[in-house]
Design brief:
The protein has 226 residues and is mainly alpha-helical. The chain has one domain. The chain has 10 helices and 2 strands; from the N terminus they run αααααββααααα. The protein has a two-stranded antiparallel ribbon with strand order 1-2. α3 packs antiparallel against α4. The longest helix is centred in the middle third of the chain and has 35 residues. The two termini are 29 Å apart.
Length: 226
């Protein structure tokens, strides 16, 4: 833990800073969303911690522990990109509307809201998503390096495709079936039962979200390797 905190001290500082912003907005708006955002961002950091533990145990040739940390990373990784779905919480906010431009104007004009709270709400969700996805993608990059070093580049690519697909499934489970990451461990049969009840939307969402994750990762990777 100490090594992780030393290596990612800026990351930890930004986490506390984000919590501070959410706390201020909670008292300002009395919206429980900011508690949920704080919790989701914390969950998004855990995969990076788990994969760093995996790196340590791989170096120590502790195979069982390495598998344990990688599985734990895989279970919690969807939390890192889950926050993109939190943008649905601004759906009911009125950012703009049509208004008469004047007595002689036949058409209306777009008027944008001057309510600062709804714009800050948008920005706070965006901050949480950006923070979480960058942290998550860093953990995926570390995972790919582990696989490449242990096996090969081709298996590395296959593993990333698999992670993308499993992440799409994980986000679907979290957003629509309302399970948590730990339910996969403590309530696996119930999770599998509901996931197995496949419909068209489920398949479409998983494919779309998996593509989104892979797109984000390839973009991140292109900058990382430069």
């Amino acid at each position: 833990m100490r090594t992780f905190l030393e290596k990612y001290k800026v990351l930890v500082f930004l986490l506390f800073a984000y919590w501070g912003v959410c706390l201020v907005m909670l008292f300002k708006s009395l919206d429980f969303l900011y508690v949920a955002l704080s919790w989701n961002v914390l969950l998004a950091v855990l995969p990076l911690f788990f994969i760093r533990q995996a790196v340590t145990t791989v170096g120590q040739r502790k195979i069982s522990w390495s598998i344990f940390w990688i599985v734990l990373w895989l279970i919690f990784f969807p939390n890192s990109v889950y926050l993109v779905t939190d943008f649905i919480h601004i759906a009911n906010e009125k950012f703009k509307w049509m208004s008469n431009a004047g007595p002689y104007a036949p058409d209306g004009a777009i008027v944008y809201s001057h309510d600062i709270l709804i714009w800050i709400k948008l920005l706070v969700i965006a901050m949480g998503f950006f923070y979480s996805v960058v942290v998550g993608l860093e953990s995926v990059y570390i995972f790919e390096q582990i696989v490449r070093k242990k096996y090969s580049k081709k298996i590395g690519y296959v593993s990333i495709l698999s992670v993308g697909l499993l992440t799409g499934i994980g986000v679907y489970i979290g957003r629509f079936l309302r399970f948590n990451s730990w339910d996969i461990v403590f309530n696996p049969f119930q999770v599998l039962k509901q996931v197995a009840d496949v419909d068209r939307f489920e398949v479409q969402f998983i494919i779309a979200f998996s593509g989104f994750v892979l797109f984000c990762y390839m973009l991140y990777r292109s900058f990382k390797e430069k």
